[in-house]
Amino acid sequence: MGPSIFETFSKSLNAILNDESVDALLYIFAVPQKPLETFSIPITPHLRELRNLSTKLNKPVITCVFGSRWVLEYFLKHSDKYKIPIMTQISHAIKAFKFMSDFGKSNKN
Hints:
- This is Methylenetetrahydrofolate reductase (NAD(P)H).
- InterPro entries: Succinyl-CoA_synth-like.
- Helix 4 links the parallel strand 2 (61-65) and strand 3.
- The chain has a single domain (2-108), classed as Transcription Regulator spoIIAA.
- It has a 3-stranded parallel beta sheet, with helices on both faces.
- The chain has 5 helices and 3 strands.
- Helix 1 runs parallel beside helix 3 (44-57).
- The chain is mostly helical and 109 residues long.
C-alpha cells in the first residue's frame, strides 16, 4: 500500500478481508525506521483493527516485518498483545498458511 499505508489502511483492510474470495491475509510491514521515529507513527490502532477484523471474519492473518532489527523490535513491542503471528520471511509465512490449510482439511475428514 506504499507510503499512504497509514491513511488507507482501514479501508483497504476492510475491502480485502470482506472479499469472500479471500481466505487469509499476509500483511507485509516494510516501513523504514526513520519515519517511524521521526513522526512517532502509532501502529497499535492498525494492529487492533487487523486482529478484530481477522477474528470477526474468521480469516487468519500473518505479518511479515521487513527492515532493521529496530523495526522488528518496534513492531513486536506493539503487536504482542494482539497475538498476530509475525515472521521475517515470506516463505515461512506461506508455509504456515499451508500448514493451517492442511490442518483444516484433515479435521474435516
